[in-house]
Amino acid sequence: MPAAFDKIVDLSLELDPQNFAMRTPAGFTRDLQFAMEVLKEHDAPGGAGQIVRGVHMRLHAGSHVDAPEHNVRDGTQIHQLPLALFIGDAIVADLRDKMPGKSIAEADLERAIGSCVRPGDRILLRTDHNNSYDGGSDEWMKASPYLTVGATRWLIEKRAVIVGYDFYHGNDEPGSPRVFHNSRTLSEHGVITMPYLKNLDRITKQRVTLIALPLNIIGAEASPVRAVVLM
Ligand SMILES: [Zn+2]
């Protein structure tokens, strides 16, 4: 049977210790940057000729999904979310004119996707910023646009189920009511955030199928994903 798609676009950021690092704001007990370690070499005595590596990483390293618990105490965790959330219709909002560091207001979203958004969509916010991701420098963060309070409300009212970002998702409108107001508000409304995407410029159709399955981790607030779009 022929495949029901012509092309797979990989939206995932490379997990490469050479050029991937995570920001570590106050409150962390450990930094735990992404790192790989060989636990058994091919030629290890008694090792049966296999190599085995392990990784040190946060669940928020690279392309990942945040369950509501990330921002909401006792909120839904990854293993409690239906897998159907992570497979389905997605649309791209072209917001390249919001680089560098400008605000994304509800009128901008309306102009970009207002005519085609449907309830239950996964909305991918495109700036192409992460196509030159530099490991998460201060400059990268500052150049990232931010959603206004109204834009976040718009996404909730349109009943988006996932909001994906190809820029730093933690920037808020100046004077926002609280830190991480936008992602927190999305979490409070059950909307999944999916940061650290790239290659959104390679999506050449308006409506595509997104597949971004979390790992089957029990009791966690986030999971890495391999995010792809079928066209
Ligand atoms: Zn996260």
Can you describe what's shown?
With 231 residues, this protein is of the alpha/beta class. 13% of the residues lie in helices and 23% in strands. It contains 4 helices and 13 strands. It has helices spanning 106-113, 138-143, 149-157, 181-188, and strands at residues 8-10, 35-40, 52-56, 64-66, 87-94, 103-104, 122-126, 146-147, 162-165, 192-194, 207-211, 222-224, 228-230. The strands form 4 sheets. It has a 7-stranded mixed sheet with strand order 1-13-11-5-7-9-10. Helix 4 links the parallel strand 9 and strand 10. Helix 3 packs parallel to helix 4. The longest helix has 9 residues, at 149-157. It starts with 7 loop residues before the first strand and ends with a strand. The relative contact order is 0.24. The mean pLDDT is 96.
Distinct small-molecule ligands in the complex: zinc ion
Percentage of residues in helical conformation? 10-25%
Characterize the largest beta sheet: strand count, sense, and whether it forms a barrel. 7 strands, mixed
- Can you tell me the residue ranges where pLDDT is under 50 for at least 5 consecutive residues? none
Structural class: alpha/beta
